[in-house]
Design a protein that fits this description.
By secondary structure, the chain is an alpha/beta fold. Helix 1 crosses helix 4. The longest helix has 19 residues.
Length: about 170
């Protein structure tokens, strides 16, 4: 059985709720929850797969807690690790950088040798641009709890089923 960690801020209510739903929906693996605000770099060597939560702050920025841990991770080789990213954003009020943080994290971890999994379709979203979009696919699960919260449960279920196939 693969070792999987879901990493999110325990202080972010919306992210924590989504992370719990994702963890509950993964049936074939045990998922351990890690608080990104207390993670150390070496913890990213202990698991086979990471599911990372990242809301987009302000005009397409990472939250401070991700900015603080990335330097500690920047020297690690994550070759052989799988990374899935999900993020929260607001495509109506921030259409020019919707869920940019998902793309920022995907790029960062890909540059460390990790394999990004959990790509999704941009169909059903309305935004101008996003760093999460590459080659006409989204490099993770994008959730808009402000404008499309009714679609989130279905998107989460579909994504977690996809992840289980990609993890094996």
């Amino acid at each position: 059985m693969k070792k999987i960690a879901i990493v999110y801020s325990f202080n972010s209510t919306k992210s924590a709720k989504i992370a719990s739903k994702i963890a509950e929906n993964i049936k074939n693996h045990k998922v351990e929850e890690l608080n990104v605000e207390s993670c150390k770099g070496e913890e990213f060597l202990l698991y086979d797969t990471y599911i990372l939560s990242v809301p987009t702050w302000f005009d397409g920025e990472l939250p401070n807690y991700w900015d603080e841990i990335l330097p500690a991770l920047s020297t690690l080789s994550l070759k052989g690790k799988k990374i899935a990213v999900f993020g929260l954003g607001d495509q109506k009020n921030y259409p020019e950088n919707f869920c940019d943080a998902v793309g920022i994290l995907a790029d960062f971890f890909e540059n460390l040798g990790a394999t990004i999994i959990g790509y999704t379709s941009p169909e059903g979203y309305k935004f101008e641009s996003s760093k999460a979009l590459k080659n006409n696919v989204l490099r993770g699960l994008l959730l808009d709890q402000e404008n499309q919260s009714k679609l989130s449960d279905e998107r989460i279920l579909k994504w977690t089923r996809q992840l289980e196939n990609e993890i094996n």
